[in-house]
Amino acid sequence: MIEIKGLHKSYHMGSNSLHVLKGINFNVKEGELVAIMGSSGSGKSTLLNILGMLDSLDEGEYILDGVPIKNLNETKAANYRNKFLGFIFQSFNLINYKSAWENVALPLYYQGVNRKERKERAVKHLASVGLEPWIDHLPSELSGGQKQRVAIARALAAEPKVMLADEPTGALDSKTSYEVMDLIQKINDQGKTILVVTHEDDIAQMCKRVVHLKDGLIVEDTLVNQVRASEHV
Known about the structure:
There is one protein chain. The protein is an alpha/beta fold. It has one domain (2-94, 160-232): Rossmann fold (3-Layer(aba) Sandwich), CATH 3.40.50.300. The chain is built from seven helices and ten strands. The protein has helices spanning 44-51, 74-84, 100-110, 115-128, 144-157, 174-189, 201-204, and strands at 2-13, 16-28, 33-37, 59-64, 67-68, 85-89, 162-166, 193-197, 209-214, 217-223. The strands form two sheets. The protein has a six-stranded mixed β-sheet with strand order 6-7-8-3-9-10, with helices on both faces. Helix 3 packs across helix 4 and helix 5 packs parallel to helix 6. InterPro entries: AAA+_ATPase, ABC_transporter-like_ATP-bd, ABC_transporter-like_CS, MacB-like_ATP-bd, P-loop_NTPase.
């Protein structure tokens, strides 16, 4: 599903250059649930941004579902993101003046789906994350855990090949974090490929594989005995 070969990325600041990713090789098969860990500055956010087509690589190859991702202009990158990827962010990134269902329907709007079908699909995905009674609520009327569920429903709305979750539990307490991970595990159980960037060990252990980055390189890549979040909710 994801193939990364010899990935390098540097950032130039004035006369200085910061070499963030230093030749990463990384494959993810369809249906995996992978945690990406590393301290601040290890390169995990840069890697996620490249996987999410929010940033471009300097050297190497990135192949997503058989499609080489390279030399994309912003329009093509946006089209590919909408086709292939669903995003979940630590800060939820919901639009405050739009209801839960309108937030979930946004990717469908960009895909040109008509309003009636957008609402039907958005409501279906909100129901799947346990939020059907809240479809008309604004983000300000929802708890942190409910906001993240809306964000997960939005990530699912366009039926992406891969979901990218950037610190999805970072703004939540432990109980709510485990509820969100329970939901992510259930989505993965249905065959969805999911990558989770986290700095929390207990969250990483709820994935099936843990990849550790340090100083721009993968230093460890191990399969783990997955801890089911439902046992801790």
